[in-house]
Specification:
The chain has six helices and 14 strands. By secondary structure, it is an alpha/beta fold. The strands form four sheets. Strands 5-4-1-6-12-8-13 form a seven-stranded mixed sheet, with helices on both faces. Strands 7-14-9 form a three-stranded mixed sheet. A two-stranded antiparallel ribbon has the order 2-3. Helix 3 (90-98) packs across helix 5. The radius of gyration is 17 Å and the shape is globular. Residues 9-117 form the Nucleotidyl transferase domain.
Length: 239
């Protein structure tokens, strides 16, 4: 059994969910239901199933509703929040604010993720590939054939060593970012103040040859807009 690289996962749940409108007019995106289950519960249940005991969830939009949902959960992980009510900090800023609560390294994932594991769970996949001497972050990526509902051009290339490069304009990249990563505190060094995207830190890591990717061996579902909900439910019903 693979020893997990961290005992804590951060779940990014503070976004406005604009692409999921009108469902998010009165409901935060992490609480939109797919197959009778809130989106964030797919992530939290997978965290619990993997044996990760702690989760940090950042909150901003309709934060009270999200916090109430977390308090009512009947199973792990032990969950605390990082409060962004005063200012939405985006992905990078959200991780920076929560960093005092996070070990080195920590898992980080989007709250709208739905996936099916392959032979190993995704946290074990990342842990098995993790090398802190070479890596600032390790992104879980997925090939187009394993990315259901996805209609984009991909995000990244991986070289033979697993180092990440961005998709070139006008091209199709073979790998899509799943929204799941393993992050070293080194990636977060000298982070900008206030709101900013994790892409700022990733770009520096790419230039230093320290951003890596690991290919997911299971299935992953793009659930970014209302039209993706029914196909996802149908896939899950067959799984």
């Amino acid at each position: 059994m693979t020893k997990l690289a961290s005992d804590t996962a951060m779940v990014l749940a503070a976004g406005l969910g604009k692409r999921m409108r009108p469902l998010t007019a009165s409901t935060p995106k992490p609480l939109v239901r797919v197959g009778g289950k809130a989106l964030i519960d797919y992530s939290l249940d997978q965290i619990d199933d993997a044996g990760i005991p702690k989760a940090i969830v950042n909150v901003h939009y309709l934060a009270d509703a999200l916090e109430a949902h977390l308090e009512k959960r009947k199973r792990g992980p032990e969950t605390s929040t990082s409060d962004e009510r005063a200012l939405l900090l985006e992905t990078g800023g959200g991780m920076t604010k929560a960093l005092p609560q996070l070990p080195d390294p920590f898992f980080c994932l989007n709250s709208d993720n739905i996936w099916l594991d392959g032979p190993r769970n995704v946290f074990a996949e990342l842990s098995a590939a993790w090398d802190p001497e070479r890596m600032d972050a390790l992104l879980l990526v997925v090939s187009h054939v394993r990315a259901l509902n996805y209609r984009g051009k991909g995000d990244f290339y991986l070289d033979p060593l697993g180092r990440v490069a961005r998709r070139r304009p006008g091209r199709i990249a073979p790998f899509i970012y799943t929204g799941i990563q393993l992050v070293s505190h080194r990636l977060m060094r000298n982070a900008p103040e206030g709101p900013f995207s994790t892409n700022v830190l990733w770009q520096r890591a790419i230039e230093e040859g320290r951003l890596f990717g690991a290919a997911h061996t299971g299935l992953w579902f793009e659930v970014g807009e209302p039209a993706a909900i029914r196909p996802t439910e149908e896939w899950l019903a067959r799984a």
